[in-house]
Amino acid sequence: MNITVFRIDERLIHGQIVTAWIAYANANRIIVADDKAANDEFQKTLLQMATPKTIELQILGMDETIRTIKEDTSDTKTLLLVRGPKEALQMIEGGLDLKEINVGNINMKKGKTKILGNLWIDDEDIRNLNKIHEVGVALEVRTVPNERSQDVIKLISK
């Protein structure tokens, strides 16, 4: 499996993914790595409805995602989506060799601080993002591929 884009986005599959990120990733497959979605038939149906018919969609739990990626020796170009920094760190700690993560959207919630309009974080997010950075994975913020990339660690260090 060739993961061409690894993205953090709480919304998982939505318009920006369909109209911009699938083409940018040149992806034939989307993997949504999310325990909640993997165990919720209604959410699975909604994610399938949002995915173009030409794209294979797998909605897997976190452990199953790691196992599937490690076992897949194909060159299938894949867009990997997780909901937040905690899940991204879980992918890295699970042994996936990934060099860069795109942070697309971490929503506003009580107790989170606004960094950008699409990036709201709390202390747990900061710890997880810093751990990801410490193992050599680059973190960039962009909502769409043609937007200017910004370094997440520089933004949260201000």
UniProtKB/TrEMBL annotation:
Task: Kindly give the Gene3D superfamilies that the UniProt entry links to this protein.
Answer: Phosphotransferase system, sorbose subfamily IIB component
- Which subcellular locations apply to this protein? Cytoplasm
| Annotated keywords | Cytoplasm, Kinase, Phosphotransferase system, Sugar transport, Transferase, Transport
Limits of the PTS EIIB type-4 domain: 1-158
Q: Does the keyword Plastid apply?
A: no
Record-linked Pfam families: PTSIIB_sorb
Q: Which InterPro entries match?
A: PTS_IIB_sorbose-sp, PTS_IIB_sorbose-sp_sf
What PROSITE patterns does this protein's entry cite?
Answer: PTS_EIIB_TYPE_4
Q: What is this protein called?
A: PTS sugar transporter subunit IIB
Q: Which organism is it from?
A: Lysinibacillus agricola
